[in-house]
Amino acid sequence: MTDQQVKRFKYWEFRTMAMCIFGYALFYFVRKNLSIAMPYLNEEMGISKSDLGLFLTLHGLIYGLSKFFNGIWGDRSNARYFLVTGLVFCGICNLLFGFSSSVLVLGIFWVLNGWFQGMGVPPCTRLMTHWIVPERLATKMSVWNTSHSIGAGLAIIFCGYVVSLNWGAWFDASSILSQHWRWCFLLPATIAILGAAVVWAFVRDTPSSVGLPELKTGKAAPADAKPHTKAEEKAEHKAFLRRKVFLNPTIWIIAVGNFFVYIVRFAVLDWGPTMLKEHLHMDISHAGWTVAAFEIAGIAGMLAAGWATDRFFGGRAPRTCGIVVPRRTGRRGTKTDLSRLGRRQRLRVAGRTDVIEPLKSKARQFSAGGLFVSGDAVLAALQIDLDEAGLQFVGFLRQNIRLRRLRQFVEFVEILANRRHLFI
Questions:
Q1: For residue 143, what pLDDT is reported?
Q2: Given Cys at both, which of 152, 257, 344, 384 links 324, Cβ 3.0 to 4.6 Å?
Q3: How far apart are CA 344 and CA 361, in angstroms?
Q4: Which helix (H) or strand (E) holds 257?
Q5: Whether the Cβ atoms of residue 362 and residue 280 lie closer than 8 Å to each other
Q6: Distance CA 415, CA 369 (A)
Q7: The pTM of the whole model exceeds 0.90
Q8: Which residues make Cβ contacts (< 8 Å) with residue 150, sequence separation at least 6?
Q9: Phi and psi at residue 252, in whole multiples of 5°?
Q10: Contact predicate 423/368, CB 8 Å
């Protein structure tokens, strides 16, 4: 490429990366808003926790199937159209959910939302591979992966404040709009649809769509190669899926590992606000901040994993996983005696009862957990256990990082590791 083309390519690479982060973060605004709304669905609509759990289970199953099938279709589709379509339909499902009252109808719209949620990851990963060279892909993917935590954290904080507002002051008590939980879906849906228009305006599918040469990846086709017919391309695609996906043991290992990581992550995101509100009697906005700390801390884990993969292992993600694989996840964690915390002295400020100490304790514990759970930036289940191997790895990083701020950050992580008893 010429110097002018290189300059334009860097501009479009940054623009595409920013829009992928922005666009996928919006999917969380219309996915994790249910977490904040659940206590109010239980109180105002009488929907039981078992029904809410069924909503979450069916949504997760459909979401997983959707990511699988949409991943196959997304490989052969225009990523710009695919991403915007999924985001718009997620917004529509949330609008319909917010105006519904029947448990069955609510469940149907939330399951449909799960299907359209699966249209978020495939186009983003496709855009990344078209605009980023393989040597920097792990680092860039880890940067994009922060959109998960940014979106989830902001969505829960935003909805926590939305549901705390006195909507009955603006709407008659007989109006459905006076019910707090509905605004957890109506406002995020509006934001998602408006954001989809922004993504549509700024994203382009491939470099060739803006007059730039495509990245050279893989083996070049022979000069005398004949163009394939549609039947041959279809057969070749099926063979690729069978050999590289279904019969690839690495894919299955990553899938199983990620399954267990998301058990922890979604348990905190989906049920954390309800638990904190009902058992610790936290204000819902404070509960939102506490759960968001889990996701915000995960950003550090994502960036560190992606950077280490490219910096030390030449993009070979399994080596990163081999160093930081958990050994004591099931035995040690952020176990807390809720009954003891619930009896702590409450401080009354301006007529409100705020449980200060439990809030600090849970925020600290959730953030510590998030730091070491959100590591699928290297396309694998990445958890960091603060044991001897983890401390050795942190020490190795500290000695080899020359940039002042990065070195200070790693030293901070090492201090946390040495004082891990404070989080347990």
A1: 85
A2: 384
A3: 12
A4: helix 249-279
A5: yes
A6: 16
A7: no
A8: 21, 25, 295, 299
A9: -70, -35
A10: yes
- CB of 156 within 8 A of CB of 273? yes
Query: How much is the pLDDT for 420?
Result: 44
- C-alpha to C-alpha distance for 336 and 210, rounded to whole angstroms: 54
- In the chain, which residues have pLDDT < 70? 217-228, 302, 306, 310, 313-424
Buried-state track 52-91, b at ≥16 Cβ within 10 A, e below 16: beebbeebbebbeebbeebbeebbebbbbebbbbbbbbbb
User: How does DSSP classify residue 245?
Assistant: I
Backbone conformation region of residue 46, classed left if phi is above 0, alpha if psi is from -120 to 50, else beta = left
CA 148 vs CA 153, 228, 295: distances in Å:
8, 38, 8
How many Å apart are CA 363 and CA 357, to the nearest integer? Answer: 10
Are 266 and 61 within 8 A, CB to CB?
Answer: no
Could you give the C-alpha distances from 197 to 24, 26, 217, in angstroms and in order? 13, 12, 31
pLDDT of residue 114: 94
DSSP 3-state assignment of 354? strand
Q: Which amino acid is at 70?
A: N
Helix axes 183-202, 33-44, angle to 10 degrees: 160
Dig out the tokens for 328 from the structure.
């004591």
φ, ψ at 227 (rounded to 5°):
-65, 140
As a whole number of angstroms, the distance between CA 104 and CA 22 comes to: 32
Distance, CA of 62 to CA of 366 (rounded, Å): 28
Residue 18 to residue 198: CA distance in whole angstroms: 11
Inter-residue contact 305 to 325 (CB < 8 Å): no
Most distant pair of Cα atoms in the chain: their distance: 81
Q: What is the pLDDT of residue 327?
A: 38
Strand partners, 397: none
- Identify the CA nearest to 366 among candidates 344, 335, 339, 342: 335
**Structural contact between residues 278 and 39, judged by C-beta atoms closer than 8 angstroms:** yes
Nearest to 27 by CA among 202, 154, 157: 154
Amino acid identity for residue 145 in this structure: N
CB 178 within 8 A of CB 171: yes
Burial class (CB in 10 A: 0-12, 13-18, 19+), 395: middle
Q: What pLDDT was estimated at residue 244?
A: 77
